[in-house]
TrEMBL record:
Pfam families on file: tRNA_m1G_MT
GO molecular function, one term: tRNA (guanine(37)-N1)-methyltransferase activity
Protein name, entry field: tRNA (guanine-N(1)-)-methyltransferase
Subunit structure: Homodimer.
Catalytic reaction equation(s): guanosine(37) in tRNA + S-adenosyl-L-methionine = N(1)-methylguanosine(37) in tRNA + S-adenosyl-L-homocysteine + H(+)
Classification via Gene3D superfamilies: 3.40.1280.10, tRNA(m1g37)methyltransferase, domain 2
GO terms under biological process: tRNA N1-guanine methylation
Enzyme Commission number: 2.1.1.228
Keyword presence, Glycosyltransferase: no
Amino acid sequence: MRIDVVTIFPRYLDALRESLPGRAIADGRVSLAVHDLRDWAADRHRTVDDTPYGGGPGMVMKPDVWGRALDSVVADAEEPPILVVPTPAGRPFTQAVAAELATAPHLVFACGRYEGIDQRVMVDAARRLPVREISIGDYVLNGGEVAVLVVLEAVLRLVPGVLGNPRSAGEDSFADHLGGLLEAPSYTRPAVYRDLPVPEVLLGGNHAAIDRFRRDESLRRTAAHRPDLLATAELDDRDRAVLAA
Ligand code: ADE
């Protein structure tokens, strides 16, 4: 997979070279290029922003600078990449979006700062590329860089050969076998930690009982933390009885 990130803070993305994504980059399974947007500025101050038309606070990133940057990054691409633009005004980033992005051979990320990027940059890019404006949550960051770290961590662990243990990706929260519920809590040794015992059923070898216990914990946790997920979760009569209890 090829990844390009355009930002005015290239060093923010240094974190990608750590850990699992870092290993995939180091051994060539993922090629990562981080570009400084200011390289495409036109003046000696390397200006990338300007005041908003229509008034209002803050600054808007200039379309001409972004247009040159994206044209240049895409110029040698073999097929059109997906352009990902993190913004609090985007569609929610979910595991399903991560799975879609993980199948793309080439992703380009455009990190906005200030009040965002002139919207015509995305309108123009969409004439040639799939464009995904995505939000990582209902809060406002200062820019897209940290959102790119979040998105890439979620995406890269779904790319075959990037995650150390290929079984793990399918077993996390939102995995299909949980039918849209949160995963159950986990425990390891010791069997008693500061007067707190591990749930008894996990110490025995009754796997049907363990599966039932974990299912019940998933249901209770989802009801407590994310009741919105219950509306679309796959529930049977036994699940509904546990929730009603
Ligand atoms: N940029 C600023 N806030 C953001 C958010 N919540 N998600 C994605 N990009 C952002």
